[in-house]
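haha ok so turns out i had the wrong file open the whole time. this is the CORRECT one, sorry everyone. sequence first:
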Amino acid sequence: MVCGGFACSKNCLCALNLLYTLVSLLLIGIAAWGIGFGLISSLRVVGVVIAVGIFLFLIALVGLIGAVKHHQVLLFFYMIILLLVFIVQFSVSCACLALNQEQQGQLLEVGWNSTASARNDIQRNLNCCGFRSFNPNDTCLASCFKSGHPCSPCAPIIGEYAGEVLRFVGGIGLFFSFTEILGVWLTYRYRNQKDPRANPSAFL
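then structure:
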């Protein structure tokens, strides 16, 4: 049977949703590993990563069940949700790739001031204190501060990695956004194909 047939569409859709399932479990595992080894103490960051992983897992589960059962309603909702996720993810990925250094600095400063736990993680892991400057009366978890040595501000250190991280996140986001639009196309085609084993007079 050629790849445009019913079986091929079903197998491709199942394989795509298995990929999404693995990615979702990987996200949940990374979040659990980070908080288990003390690399991340921010419950907000961990919560967001786990929530994204669970959301992706549920989407993949709906798509997988719809593909196996050739369930029209599940496939329709899966297609709509995947299209909405594609629009959001494609927009965010393009924004990550389009940020210049000044915009990256402003974004990092907003994130720095938004949560104390993430700020403490950065200072401890990168061995720096403060964003652009540090008040000696403030507390800092960096080893340089504990040992009494002068500490560098965190902004230049974070800035070295920010551009690479944003490009990496934007590239990964673009890659998965194209797999999502592929999933929308596969689902649309699969919904309108007749199961050769079903009753020819049945509604599909």
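Helices lie at 6-36, 43-69, 72-98, 101-114, 116-126, 143-146, 154-191.
again sry for the mixup
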